[in-house]
Amino acid sequence: MLTVKSFEFNPVQENTYVLSNGKDACLVIDPGCYFGHERTELKEHIEQQGLSPKILLNTHCHLDHVFGNQFVAETWDLPLHLHEKERPVLAVAPAMGLQWGMPFENYRGEQILLVPGRSVTLDDDRLEILFLPGHSPGSVGFYCREEGFLIGGDVLFRESIGRTDLPGGDHATLLKSIREQLWPLPDETIVYPGHGEPTTIGHERANNPFLR
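-> C-alpha cells emitted (212 positions)
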C-alpha cells in the first residue's frame, strides 16, 4: 500500500510528491525544491522516515517541476524517468529559469523513457503510466488503480485545468486528454495535482467549468 506525502515548494507553489510503500522504499515525483531549506526538508523527511528512494519521476518538465531533479539524482544516485517528448522541455528549462530570475542546475544524467500503457513498480505496488498531453507535449500521469489515486501533474486541478499558453501546449489536446484518459476513471479516484489541493474525478466531472 502506497502512502502519498506532498510538499509545496518554490515560488510557484509546486507540489512535490514522495510515495512510500510501508517498507523502506519510496519514489520521488516532480521534485520542485529550489531553495536550500526546501531540499533539506525533503531530505530530512526521507531520512527520518527511514526511506530509500528508488525511482525519480517527472510528470512533465516545466521548470517548477524539475528544480530539484539534479539534487535528488545526486543525493540518492537515481536516473530520471520522463516521457520522450519532455526531453526538449527539460533541455530549455534553465533558459526559462533565467527568464524568471531563478537560475538552477539542470539534471544531466541518464534519461529513462516512460512508455504510456506500461507501469512503474515499487516492489508490489504499481503505477500505470497515462499519456496526458496538452499542458506540455509529453505530460504523463501515474495512476494507482488498486488504491484509487492519480498523480496528475498540471493536467487537472480542482475546478480548473492546466495552462496551455506555454510552448508545446494545446488547449484542445488537453481537453481531449482529460476526457479520454481521466473521465473513464472511477468517481472516487483522488487526483493529486501539480499545484493546489487534491480533488476527485467525480467532483471535476460534475463541477469543472472548463469541461462542461
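The chain has a mean pLDDT of 97.
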